[in-house]
Design brief:
Number of helices: 13
Strand content: 15-25%
Largest sheet: 5 strands, antiparallel
Helix content: 40-55%
Structural class: alpha+beta
CATH architecture of one domain: 2-Layer Sandwich
Order of helices and strands: EEHHHEEEHEEEEEHHEHHHHHHH
CATH topology of one domain: Alpha-Beta Plaits
Shape: elongated
CATH class of one domain: Alpha Beta
Radius of gyration: 32 Å
Distance between the termini: 48 Å
Number of strands: 11
């Protein structure tokens, strides 16, 4: 096989490929063997006749068509490997010369990841402050546990801080009087003093009794998460359906026993602290890895095919649409809140998508440079651990699929590579 390469752009390559006599003969024999079960040769059972007899009986147009498909696929794959290409699209094939079964020449134009130039990644450093778990953090978890175990009873008195009120609320633009998407709710349980609503909302309900209706105007914070609501004045109409007194259980050894296999409050606090420390370590590693990889990627040079960026934007938007749907909003309502068209929203994602793709390619390049591999034994152990988390037969079968096993192996390689980078940075 002979291969010539022509760089059409930073990410587009044209391969000129020709097969030699030996490869062409091998592919022809393989094609005949594949077609033989469907060819009838007098005196022979299907698939048992010699190749030369099968060739005489077979439709030559069918043989040539099947041969070309197999030959082009095989030669293209081998040529791409030889040139160390990382294709991201199907090739555009053009047969330039074909003499059955002696000469085959064709071109293949394909989008491929371009040249990757890494910095001295072993010397890249980032600093992330580890979180120290304090007594306040532990007490906050305990307070949440007590709140979850709290009893509630309706009371015929004005609401005070610490009470829960069951409310309907409806928000309209203070200027236009138009309804505000996402600023309404029915039978919503709100704990007064929890600071879960915008500043001032809960304060307006202190002193409200059952069946009270309250109207007030609040200004959303200028840094509010929904751009369309930032600094907007909204008129709220709130109906209080019920005031409930919240009584938290007593924090004692009996409560500790109800939470888990614990005997005392001291054991509960110790257990919570250990869990928080594990979570803090995991979060520290995540932030550290992201910052380190982003810094290395920022110092790297990578020619990225546009199709990879578009695919990443597709993934990011699909995830966002799923979250929006979970919140009960339509995609158009979400776009309206952000004050963006669909096209502008997509363009807004481009920088982040570019960095995510670049970071992934850089991480894979470092894995190659460091000769990081996952052994069959390591892969099997991970797969068995994953299977131990499920009992559903369908899910277990999914894990065993070739493409899923490959994804698991790739994740393990990424994990090992990040561990290696972390070790360099720690020196």
């Amino acid at each position: 096989m002979q291969v010539k390469s022509e760089q059409l752009s930073a990410t587009k390559v044209k391969l000129l490929i020709s097969g030699d006599d030996k490869i062409i003969a091998q592919i022809k024999q393989a094609t005949l063997a594949e077609l033989s079960p469907n060819v009838k040769v007098p005196g022979f059972r299907p698939g048992k006749a010699p190749a030369n007899l099968i060739e005489k009986q077979i439709d030559q147009s069918v043989l040539q068509s099947e041969f070309l498909e197999q030959a082009v696929n095989h030669l293209y794959v081998e040529a791409a490997k030889h040139q160390k290409l990382r294709p991201v699209t199907q090739p555009e094939i053009e047969i330039t010369k074909f003499v059955p079964f002696s000469t085959l020449e064709f071109s293949a134009v394909v989008e491929s990841v371009g040249k990757i130039e890494l910095p001295d990644y072993k010397k890249v450093r980032v600093t992330v402050e580890p979180k120290t778990i304090s007594a306040k953090d532990v007490n906050q978890v305990i307070d949440n546990l007590l709140s979850r175990g709290a009893s509630k009873k309706p009371v015929n008195r004005p609401a005070k801080a610490g009470d829960e009120v069951l409310i309907d609320f409806f928000g309209t633009d203070a200027k236009t009087k138009e309804p505000i998407s996402g600023a309404d709710g029915k039978a919503y349980p709100l704990l007064l003093g929890s600071k879960t609503f915008i500043p001032g909302f809960e304060d307006e309900l202190i002193g409200a009794s059952k069946d009270d209706v309250r109207e007030f105007v609040l200004t959303f914070p200028k840094d509010y998460g929904v751009k369309a609501l930032q600094s907007k004045k909204v008129n709220f109409k709130v109906t209080v359906h019920e005031v409930l007194e919240v009584a938290k259980p007593k924090l004692d050894d009996e409560f500790a026993k109800s939470v888990g296999p614990l005997k005392t409050v001291a054991e509960l606090k110790s257990d919570i602290k250990k869990q928080l420390e594990v979570e803090a370590k995991s979060e520290y590693n995540r932030i550290f890895d992201n910052q380190l990889l982003e810094k290395i990627a920022d110092k790297s040079s990578v020619a990225i095919p546009e199709v990879l960026i578009e695919e990443e934007i597709d993934r990011m938007e699909a995830e966002e649409k799923s979250n929006v749907a979970y919140r009960g909003q339509t995609w158009q309502e979400h776009l309206d809140e952000e004050g963006l068209t669909a096209e502008a929203h997509r363009e807004k994602q481009r920088t982040g998508a570019d960095m995510r793709v670049k970071a992934g390619l850089v991480l894979a390049e470092i894995a190659d440079a460091e000769n990081i591999i996952v052994t069959p034994e390591e892969l099997e152990i991970r797969i068995q651990l994953l299977k131990g988390q499920y009992t559903d037969a369908q899910m277990l079968a999914e894990i065993d699929k070739t493409e899923n096993r490959r994804d698991i192996m790739n994740r393990m390689i990424s994990e090992k590579t990040l561990d290696r980078l972390r070790s360099f940075s720690a020196k």
